[in-house]
Amino acid sequence: MRFAYSLLRLFTNRRRHLMVLPKRLYLASVLLLITRFLASDYAHGQSRVAQAIPAMGTEARIIAYAENEEEGRKAVEAALDRILEIEDRLSDYDLTSESMLFCKSAPHEVLRPISNDLWVCLLRGKQIWSQSKGAFDVTVGAYSKLWRRARRQREFPSQERLSSAAMVVGFDHVEVDMDSPRAAISTSGLQLDFGAIAKGYAADEAIRVLKEHGISIAIADVGGDVAIGTAPDAKPGWPVGIAPLSETGELQITHLSQCGVATSGDAFQFVELDGRRYSHIIDPRSGIALTLRSSVTVVAPTGLEADAWASAISVLGPRVGLRMIRRLPGVTAYVVTDRNGDGVGEISQSRGFPQLADEMSP
Fold this sequence. Notes:
four-stranded antiparallel β-sheet, T-fold, eight-stranded antiparallel β-sheet, 19 strands, globular, alpha+beta
């Protein structure tokens, strides 16, 4: 799905803390961790452990505070292993992943046993598909494949190909057992694409694994989809920021804990066809990539929800999207739309979105 801002790199160490941003980042509202507050004294008396690995087509990074550095490293490694395990099951690039093999074996006459990871993402995916009235859909894989080809070939998908893909997109083709990890696909050719939910889910699972190892003060970032644990000491939360809309603007900062946060946007992944800019984000209801430039930051109880709703609101637009999440407990959003293509965005946000302040002094 959505573009995780993998070009954003966070560099930290115990002596010096730098935040490096790509140029012209003002073209979208981008999620950031404010690293200068992640120094070793941020959680007094505890060891800071940070590790990053390539995963899920981006970088997975964990920062945690533990009573013992050795035990902390073991916990972080276990959490990163969990992320890789999820990638092995849900990837739509690996032909041997569970998700791909499950699709390949369709149609299914009866419900089939599946892993808990695949089940959770299908179950929650179907719930959010229903809540968003189809603006979020993990069965969008056939469209995703067409638009990946469009970006490579720089050629708009033909109507014939779009119509063919439309026949195998939609949760109407998928049955998911509500009580146990089983599911079935009723038609051949359907392709699952968990790009808008898997990274957030993986970040959630990383935090869960850390808690099992006795670590609650932690943050897991999988390509920009972030799950946040307990805040260090008496701090109000982990500092998280939203980039300015212009190069001269101020970085806006909030503090978050025990939640998920994600940003969906098309600042870097897009294609121009016949003079028109098409995002990598696809409207599952039409099969057409979005043309309105936008950035959506969502704070939610879990990374999975933040990830999925950031994508859904991108498709729905701020007016409909913000109205839709009003009934969802703990889900808030901050939306920037660039209707004129000049890099100057129009800001909309839901009630209850965490308070933002100008960048704090070092």
